[in-house]
Amino acid sequence: MSNEIYLPASDRYTNSVGYQACGKSGLLLPNISLGLWHNFGDVDDANEALKMIQYAFDHGITHFDLANNYGTPFGSAETNFGKMLKAHFSAHRDEMIISTKAGHIMWDGPYGDGGSRKYLISSIDQSLKRMQLDYVDIFYSHRYDANTPLEETMGALSDMVKQGKALYVGISKYPTEKAREAYQILRENGTPCLINQDRYNIFTRQIEQSVLPLARENGVGCIAFSPLAQGMLSDKYLNGIPENSRAAHSYGFLQKSQLSPERIEKVSKLNEIAAQRNQTLAQMALAWCLQHPVVNSVIIGTSSVKQLQDNIEALKNLSFTADEMWRIGELGA
């Protein structure tokens, strides 16, 4: 499909998902970002993947979130995304925020995991090659590595910026005190941390206690992954576990054991609140994440254009009454 399918920029951004400044930076992130963890690998439907990227971009989703090991096999999401960029979006690179990460296992041996300079520098070079890019907009340390000095990990991130391989750097899933140290080191290096990516949803609220306040204190933006709790915060599991759903598999982060009768009852009650708001449960869950003043964007992982469209509809109602917030908070506890 040619680039002519896209609306003129003024129309696309006028009718878009809307944007927020990331922390105290000048970088605007869309309220909804598209994650490519699932559904963009070699085992997935390439045509549907392209349609999702095109639909997202047409509706102002300018941020695409990847990691070195996304896709099956590892790296295939970056490779496939790179092919799409070259074939369909080459004229729009400067309108996109492309992020990737390294920190989890990517290749065998002692240098394919963790937070060492060796691994991180090798990883960004490989990611740029797979995506056929000169630079990424954001590069993350995907997790804290206790076996590597934090100065080494943050030094590698700083050097990526100074070498022009990344415009900004961030961290993901760091313990609070290590995040505090990371912010200080990066600031002293002259490459302040742009963003912290962490898990946040109605059922997972731990970051409200320390991660989010610390980010605000340091002028760091926050982006939430798993805002739908791997699909639990949708109507998918209200009547059992569908075949081929994430919970139906023995692998993955959502297991059948998590869908206890007590949890399903809470999901059902949350669904009732969403219906009263004229939203699906998924839409309400996304809107709920965005009501926190420190959360600048939520990362969604969709398997179809229809699902993507439904998620974008969440932005039509982002306000909550005090009673709704209390009821949701009680069910999320």
Question: What can be said about this structure in brief?
Answer:
The protein is an alpha/beta fold. The protein has helices at residues 9-14, 46-58, 76-88, 117-131, 150-162, 176-188, 211-218, 261-276, 281-290, 305-312, 322-332; strands at residues 19-21, 28-30, 32-35, 63-65, 97-102, 136-141, 166-172, 195-199, 221-225, 295-300.
CATH superfamily: NADP-dependent oxidoreductase domain
The largest pleated sheet is described as:
8 strands, parallel, barrel
Q: Quote the distance from N terminus to C terminus.
A: 46 Å
Quaternary class: single chain
How many strands appear in the DSSP assignment? Answer: 10
- In CATH, the topology is named TIM Barrel
Q: How are the strands of the largest sheet arranged?
A: 3-4-5-6-7-8-9-10
Task: Identify low-pLDDT runs.
Answer: 1-7, 247-255
C-alpha Rg (nearest Å): 19 Å
Structural class, judged by helices and strands?
A: alpha/beta
Put simply, the count of helices is 11
Give the helix/strand layout.
Elements: H1 9-14, E1 19-21, E2 28-30, E3 32-35, H2 46-58, E4 63-65, H3 76-88, E5 97-102, H4 117-131, E6 136-141, H5 150-162, E7 166-172, H6 176-188, E8 195-199, H7 211-218, E9 221-225, H8 261-276, H9 281-290, E10 295-300, H10 305-312, H11 322-332
Parallel strand pairs: 3-4, 3-10, 4-5, 5-6, 6-7, 7-8, 8-9, 9-10
Antiparallel strand pairs: 1-2
Protein model, in words:
The chain has a single domain (3-332), classed as TIM Barrel, CATH 3.20.20. By secondary structure, the protein is of the alpha/beta class. The N and C termini lie far apart (46 Å). The protein has helices spanning 9-14, 46-58, 76-88, 117-131, 150-162, 176-188, 211-218, 261-276, 281-290, 305-312, 322-332, and strands at residues 19-21, 28-30, 32-35, 63-65, 97-102, 136-141, 166-172, 195-199, 221-225, 295-300. The model is unreliable at 1-7 and 247-255 (pLDDT under 50). The protein has an 8-stranded parallel barrel with strand order 3-4-5-6-7-8-9-10, surrounded by 5 helices. 38% of the residues lie in helices and 14% in strands. Helix 4 (117-131) packs parallel to helix 5 (150-162) and helix 8 packs antiparallel against helix 11 (322-332).
